[in-house]
Amino acid sequence: MDIYQILQGPHITEKSTDIKKATNQISFRVHKDANKIEIKQAVEKFFKVKVLDVRTIKIKGKKKRLGRYEGKRPDWKKAIVKLMPGQTIEFFEGL
């Protein structure tokens, strides 16, 4: 799988920015079938940083209703990547 398919984008919330400041961990939205090794290699290659640890979470899509019609948001996967001490990603510095 290509690194552009694995990393789908950053997952930026209040909680993720607090975690970034406190423990140097960054959250990404990743492909559902990507494993921890592929995620680590993709982040290291794309951002040119060293990764210490990767944690993944599968998130179930919520059921939503609009009147009598019911739908479901898609399931997705989130990866929390811990960088080595002293390593930063400039993309997230302005946030």
What's this entry about, in short?
With 95 residues, the protein is an alpha+beta fold. The protein contains 3 helices and 6 strands, in the order H-E-H-E-H-E-E-E-E. The chain has one domain (3-86): RRM (RNA recognition motif) domain (Alpha-Beta Plaits).
Question: What do you see in this structure?
Answer:
The chain is of the alpha+beta class. The chain has one domain (3-86): 2-Layer Sandwich (Alpha-Beta Plaits), CATH 3.30.70.330. The protein is 27% helix and 37% strand. The chain has three helices and six strands. The chain has helices at residues 3-6, 14-23, 36-47, and strands spanning 7-10, 25-30, 51-59, 63-66, 69-72, 76-83. The strands form two sheets. It has a four-stranded antiparallel sheet with strand order 1-2-6-3. The protein has a two-stranded antiparallel ribbon with strand order 4-5. A hairpin with a 2-residue loop joins strand 4 (63-66) and strand 5 (69-72).
